[in-house]
Amino acid sequence: MKSSIKRLKNCKHAVEVNLPAEKVKQTFDEVYNDIGKHASVPGFRKGKAPRDLLEINYSKTAREEVLKKLIPETYEKILEENKLDAIGYPDITDVKLDLKEGFSYKASIETKPEIVLKNYKGFKLKKKSAEVKDEEVIKNLEILRESHSQNVPKEGTQEKEKILPKLDDEFAKDIGLESLEKLKEAVRQNIKLKLEQDSEADLDVQIIDKLLDSIDFEVPETLVNSEKERLMKDADMRIKYMEALQKKENPDSAKAFAESSKNKRQSAFLLEENAHKQAVRQVKAFFILDKIAAAEKIYLKEEELDKYIEGLAAQYKKTKEEVLGYLEKGHGMDELAINMRNKKVMEFLLREAKIE
What we know:
Blueprint: E1 2-7, E2 12-19, H1 21-38, H2 51-82, E3 91-98, E4 102-110, E5 124-125, H3 134-147, E6 150-153, E7 160-163, H4 169-175, H5 180-214, H6 221-249, H7 251-259, H8 261-296, H9 302-315, H10 320-327, H11 332-352, E8 354-355
Parallel strand pairs: 5-8
Antiparallel strand pairs: 1-2, 2-4, 3-4, 6-7
Helix pairs in contact: 1-2, 3-5, 4-5, 6-7, 6-8, 8-11, 9-10
């Protein structure tokens, strides 16, 4: 086998493969030998038909089988010889198969990026404060009052006015708490929990930022485009949801926005631009975390995955089998396992970091 490989941008490789006529003839002989064992040709018992009749009756089948043998065989050999870690399936073009001229094809291959890890332990991180300010408690209590307001008719008119409930023990009891002090404490705890979650999420962002700043590499275009498409679909769903809310609350402004083609074009451009940047970031982060996991031997145990799935089943009041069935559609199980493994990697990096 003769082959040439050319490295292109974004982890792509252009490959050309050539096999001599002798190898093609040998493969055809093997295929026709297999076909002959089961072929039904009028006038001959099964397995006894001569080669020339098999070629007349099964030429198309034989050609397909030869290609099924030669393409994977040569492709795997190329990956092995060149130590390429391929992603997905190759794009095969220009296939030529002839008993006299031999066999050849071209392939476009995407591979995992080559990453050389630098120091990823001991990052200096700054943790956001989770201290709850009194003004935040007051602000949230006012929002709570607004949500429980009532529109009542004004005396002697058709107009209505909004009446807010008094911020007292009675109001707290209506919500299900014993007193106003208990309500204030519950609001404070909810704000604190949110601040703590935001603080933890910000530490993760800092780690990813530092990892991306320390290593520069190209990523496979196919994965970036796939992630970009997913992000744009998610964003589009959120935009439609917000437009529906706006239409419900203020139909005139929603209509004006919907009719503005300039706004639509600008929004679409910004959405695509941001989605592309975010997709590149997430794909790069995935490969770096994957590399760190391998270096530090961080793996997801089967019992950890089982326990999580059992928790999902209990949460959504489904059987474990129902949850598994849902996850197994569209590679959901693989995605869950990767996310759980990456969470372990992030926990490791946090333990190794210096947090102020």
